[in-house]
Structures are given as C-alpha cells and as structure tokens.
Amino acid sequence: MADLYLKRLESERRTLWATCRLKGLPKDTPERMRIAEIDRLIAEHKAKA
Length: 49
Known about the structure:
By secondary structure, the protein is mainly α.
C-alpha cells in the first residue's frame, strides 16, 4: 500500500523548495524552516518503517 503520509510530506517539500528557489529566499524564512521540519518528519517516519 502506498504511504500517503510520506507522499504528502515529500510533495509539500518539493513545492516549498521550488518557491524558495524562485524567490531566492534566505535560510531564516518560515518556508525554509518548514522544509527543515519536513526533512525531520520524513526521517522520523522512515526510521519507524
């Protein structure tokens, strides 16, 4: 079965990353902090599996 939670996190990360790249946002913006949080959540989720 597809892991929908993981797919949603990865999709949100790709969208945020594209936005940050287009706008040239620095590391201390809320978008970049959310990307770091998503990375942490993905790592935790993969560690459980």
